[in-house]
Amino acid sequence: MSESNDRPLFSATLTPYRSLSPDGFLTLMAFVIAVSFTAGFAFWLMGAWPVVGFFGLDLALVYVAFRLNYRSALAYEEVELRPTTLTIKRVMPNGNERVWTFHPYWSKLEIEQSEWGVLAMRIVSRGRAFLFGRFLNPGDRASFAKALGQAMADLRAGRLQETGG
């Protein structure tokens, strides 16, 4: 293989979006702690001290839910288009990886759309369909599908091989 054939013509890393930053998480947890402590103290003063445990349980569950959410954000997918291969690598939050390889000339990018945008993207090749980018929002799926679809069309038309994308 020549050096130009080894170079990716299109490459992207797809990552899940998280609307709450780590600083926002700390602010939210401080607020939940303050509310739980205040309400728990009020119930303690009224003599309903067992209720305090439920406020602690609520606090623990909110914390665990957000930690699991942030852990799932460690997942990502890498999509790479080369002259002879289309590779999608999925990395799970625990670090496990799976790689799927397709021939770009025998593969087709299919998108499933609705009034809300692109619901799903899949690569179809030789009777197999591979769903990817599921954690993206519809707008991000649409822009990614457009970019990947254009890169695949340019490769088939011979436009990417000379310019390098």
Task: Annotate the secondary structure layout.
Blueprint: H1 3-6, E1 10-14, H2 22-45, H3 50-72, E2 76-81, E3 86-91, E4 97-102, E5 107-114, E6 117-125, E7 128-132, H4 138-157, H5 159-163
Antiparallel strand pairs: 1-2, 2-3, 3-4, 5-6, 6-7
Helix pairs in contact: 2-3
Quick synopsis:
The chain is 46% helix and 27% strand. The chain has helices at 3-6, 22-45, 50-72, 138-157, 159-163; strands spanning 10-14, 76-81, 86-91, 97-102, 107-114, 117-125, 128-132.
Structure notes:
With 165 residues, this protein is α+β, with helices and mostly antiparallel strands. The protein folds into two domains: 3-17 and 75-163, PH-domain like, CATH 2.30.29.30; 22-72, no CATH class. Helix content is 46%, strand content 27%. The chain is built from five helices and seven strands, in the order αβααββββββαα. The strands form two sheets. Strands 1-2-3-4 form a four-stranded antiparallel beta sheet, with helices on one face. A hairpin with a 5-residue loop joins β3 (86-91) and β4. It is elongated. The two termini are 18 Å apart. The mean pLDDT is 88.
